[in-house]
Inverse folding.
C-alpha cells in the first residue's frame, strides 16, 4: 500500500521472447500477479514483442527507444532469447546484453537451492542454499575484440576481457552485503594463478574491500576449476560466490544441476539503488526443440517472478511463491517431464497457484 492506504501498482514489462518464452511467461504471469496481492500490490503488465521474430520481421530485436520504454516500468520479466533462424550471438547481442549494459544492471543474481522431492544426479543435497553473484557488465563479455585476416590460414580472433576497479568495487560491496545479510561466507572465485592481471586485480580489490569495510564477513579465495569440483562434492559448504561474468555464467549453470535442472533455475539482473527496472529471467534459454509442445517447465520463470517481487517490495508474495513451489514439486501430476512429472506447462503453473491459494488465508 502507498502512504494514502491505496493499493500500489507494480508495472511489469513482459518480454516473452523466443521459443518456449511465450508459453512460460503466459503461464507464469497470473501466478506472479496473484502473489503480489498478498502485499496489496496490483500488477499491471505491458507485453512487448521484442526478440528474434521481431528482428527477422523489422531488422531490430527491439525498437530504438527500448531503454526509454522499459524505464517506464518497475521490472522486466523476460522469457527466453534464441531464435533458431539466428545465430546465438545475434540473439544475445541484439536484446539481452544491450538491456543489461544500457540499464547498467551490474549484478546478476542466481540462487541455488536444493528442494526436497526434486531428483538430481548429485546425492545428499539437503540444506544446499547458496547464491552466485556475477559481475554483469564487463569481463569476457565486454564486446571488445574482432578478427583480422578473415577466412585465411592466418585468421586471428580476439575477445578482450575488461576488469575495472570501479566495477569490482561495486559488485564486491553488493556481494559482501548479501553475505552479511544471509549470515554466510563470501567466496571469491577467480583464476589469478594464471591470469596475472585481470583476475589478480579481482583478488586485490575484493580482498582490500573485505578488510576495510566488511571485516565481520568470513571471506575466502577459490580458483574456478577447484570451485566446480567443490560445488558437486560439498555444495553445503557454500554461501555467496562472487564471480566474473564468464565464471558466474558457467558455475551458475552447473549449480542448476543441484536444483533439478535448468527448468528450476531463476535469475535477476539488478542495478541496486540505480532507479532502473531489473530484468528477471529463467536461465534455461529458448529450448526450440520443445517449443510449442506445451511441456516447458514454468517453475524457473515463477521463481524469477519471486525474485522480481522481493526486489520490488513484495516479500510476502515472494515467500508464498517459493513455498508453493516447494509443496508442488513432490507431485508428478503437478510437474513437467524434465523433473519427473507428467503435467504440461499450464497445469504445472496452475498447480503452484492452487498451492499458493490453499496456503493463503
Amino acid at each position: 500500500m502507498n502512504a494514502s492506504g491505496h493499493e500500489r501498482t507494480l508495472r511489469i514489462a513482459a518480454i516473452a521472447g523466443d521459443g518456449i518464452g511465450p508459453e512460460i511467461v503466459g503461464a507464469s504471469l497470473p501466478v506472479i500477479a496473484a502473489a503480489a496481492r498478498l502485499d496489496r500490490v496490483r500488477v499491471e503488465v505491458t507485453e512487448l514483442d521484442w526478440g528474434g521474430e521481431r528482428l527477422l520481421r523489422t531488422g531490430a530485436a527491439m525498437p530504438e527507444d527500448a531503454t526509454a520504454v522499459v524505464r517506464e516500468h518497475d521490472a522486466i520479466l523476460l522469457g527466453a532469447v534464441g531464435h533458431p533462424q539466428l545465430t546465438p550471438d545475434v540473439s544475445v547481442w541484439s536484446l539481452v546484453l544491450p538491456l543489461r549494459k544500457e540499464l547498467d544492471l551490474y549484478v546478476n543474481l542466481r540462487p541455488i537451492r536444493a528442494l526436497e522431492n526434486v531428483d538430481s544426479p548429485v546425492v545428499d543435497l539437503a540444506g544446499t542454499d547458496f547464491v552466485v553473484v556475477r559481475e554483469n557488465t564487463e569481463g569476457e563479455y565486454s564486446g571488445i575484440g574482432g578478427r583480422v585476416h578473415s577466412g585465411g590460414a592466418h585468421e586471428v580472433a580476439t575477445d578482450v576481457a575488461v576488469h575495472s576497479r570501479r566495477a569490482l568495487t561495486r559488485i564486491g560491496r553488493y556481494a559482501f552485503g548479501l553475505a552479511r545479510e544471509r549470515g554466510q561466507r563470501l567466496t571469491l572465485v577467480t583464476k589469478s594463478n594464471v591470469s596475472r592481471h585481470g583476475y589478480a586485480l579481482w583478488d586485490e580489490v575484493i580482498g582490500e574491500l573485505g578488510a576495510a569495510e566488511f571485516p565481520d564477513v568470513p571471506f575466502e579465495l577459490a580458483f574456478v576449476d577447484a570451485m566446480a569440483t567443490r560445488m558437486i562434492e560439498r555444495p553445503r559448504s557454500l554461501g555467496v560466490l562472487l564471480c566474473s561474468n564468464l565464471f558466474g555464467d558457467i558455475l551458475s549453470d552447473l549449480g542448476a544441476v543441484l536444483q533439478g535442472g535448468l527448468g528450476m533455475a531463476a535469475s535477476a539482473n539488478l542495478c541496486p539503488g540505480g532507479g532502473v527496472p531489473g530484468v528477471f529471467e529463467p536461465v534455461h534459454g529458448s529450448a526450440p526443440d520443445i517449443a510449442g509442445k506445451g511441456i516447458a517447465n514454468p517453475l524457473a520463470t515463477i521463481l524469477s517472478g519471486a525474485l522480481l517481487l522481493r526486489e520490488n517490495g513484495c516479500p510476502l508474495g515472494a515467500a508464498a511463491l517459493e513455498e508453493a513451489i516447494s509443496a508442488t514439486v513432490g507431485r508428478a501430476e503437478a510437474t513437467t517431464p524434465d523433473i519427473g512429472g507428467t503435467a504440461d506447462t499450464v497445469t504445472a503453473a496452475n498447480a503452484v497457484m492452487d498451492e499458493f491459494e490453499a496456503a493463503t488465508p
Notes: The first strand starts at residue 8 and ends at 17. The CA atoms of residues 66 and 99 lie 8 Å apart.
